[in-house]
Design a protein that fits this description.
single chain, 243 residues, mainly alpha, elongated
Length: 243
């Protein structure tokens, strides 16, 4: 009885410690990229304009236009990119589907040879391939996984990618703009809030990677701060030259 209880406890511990995070990136990649891009690009845009010694109203308008233009651009780009990728995958699946229909035995032998190459005994590999090939849809899924490295039932959604990119970019771009909308008339509150946001975004990203939260946060803080610093200097130089 104690052995059974011990094995059950070990099984439960293995199950609890053996869960995996979502690495497909259907929504995560565009959301993270959008937020970072929104924060960095709008912060850099606003600091560049502020470096040219323009009015408070001009900085606000620049930030709003940068938010809108960037969010729509990100959404359109993500939608087109993911839709094109999905269409390519679906075209390859159609090719595989036709091959399974026209040459089922050849595809079955191909699958058996694949399992043999991975160390399965030839007789067992042929039997496994034969059983998996009985259902055409299951056979298509297996061939897609083994030959193309994709899951036909888990293709990324262009709409999800576009909406994630739009929302996350807008949210990121809003941070450096927020102090101005609340009445700030100088740059440093916007800069401070944006840098805090960059660190926070980096720390959040670390929860789905192997990096520590402080390393990821500092990395984003440094990169975003460098971009803002460069554009501020450029804005100052161009402002002086134009003036």
């Amino acid at each position: 009885m104690s052995i059974i209880e011990t094995e059950a406890a070990l099984h439960e511990a293995h199950r609890d410690n053996h869960t995996h995070r979502d690495v497909n990136g259907g929504w995560l990649r565009p959301a993270v990229f959008g937020a970072m891009d929104g924060l960095v690009s709008n912060l850099a845009l606003m600091t560049g304009v502020a470096g040219g010694s323009v009015s408070h109203r001009t900085i606000v308008i620049t930030g709003l236009v940068g938010l809108a233009a960037g969010a729509f651009s990100m959404a359109a780009g993500e939608y087109t990119s993911v839709a094109s990728q999905r269409e390519l995958v679906e075209a390859e699946l159609d090719v595989e589907r036709r091959e399974l229909r026209k040459h089922p035995k050849d595809e079955e032998r191909e699958l058996a040879a694949l399992y043999e190459s991975r160390g399965v005994e030839p007789a067992l590999a042929r039997e496994v391939a034969s059983q998996l090939s009985r259902d055409p849809e299951q056979a298509l899924e297996i061939h897609a996984r083994e030959e193309l490295g994709i899951d036909p039932g888990d293709l990324p959604s262009p709409a999800v990618a576009a909406v994630s990119s739009f929302g996350s970019f807008a949210l990121g771009a809003l941070l450096p703009l927020l102090p101005y909308l609340l009445g700030a008339t100088v740059l440093w509150p916007a800069l401070l809030l944006a840098l805090i946001g960059l660190f926070a975004c980096g720390a959040i990203v670390a929860r789905v990677t192997a990096r520590s939260w402080w390393y990821s946060g500092i990395r984003q803080l440094v990169l975003g701060g460098a971009a803002a610093g460069v554009t501020y200097v450029l804005g100052s130089l161009f402002g002086t030259a134009v003036g």
